[in-house]
Specification:
106 residues, mainly alpha, 6 helices, 75% helix, globular
């Protein structure tokens, strides 16, 4: 699920989200004026939770997976709003990633 968000943010807002660690990505996000703290903080928590599951072997029971899926949907909504506000031309990205990302979390 974290890859879905990273891919969307890369395509929709022009971040280099697929090429670095979560911390590198969050550093890029924080140094940008494109993402407000009200979105950055939940996104950071989500990505760090995904890292715990992927790299530290944290148990991902059904309840946690459903909660992360819902967070993914909410964060996609927020990212879509940000990309719309920024404009695809200005950010160098494309909003065409939205339907693809939504299909992946459906």
């Amino acid at each position: 699920m974290s890859q879905v968000l990273r891919r969307y943010l890369q395509k929709g807002l022009g971040f280099h989200s697929l090429t670095g660690t979560t911390e590198e990505f969050l550093d890029e996000l924080r140094s940008s004026s494109r993402v407000p703290a009200s979105v950055e903080k939940p996104l950071a928590g989500f990505l760090q939770q995904c890292d715990l599951i992927k790299f530290a072997g944290q148990n991902a029971d059904e309840e946690l997976c459903l909660a992360l899926l819902e967070k993914t949907r909410l964060l996609l909504d927020e990212a879509e709003k940000l990309a719309s506000q920024a404009g695809a031309e200005e950010s160098g990205g494309s909003l065409s990633a939205v339907p693809e990302a939504r299909e992946e979390v459906a």
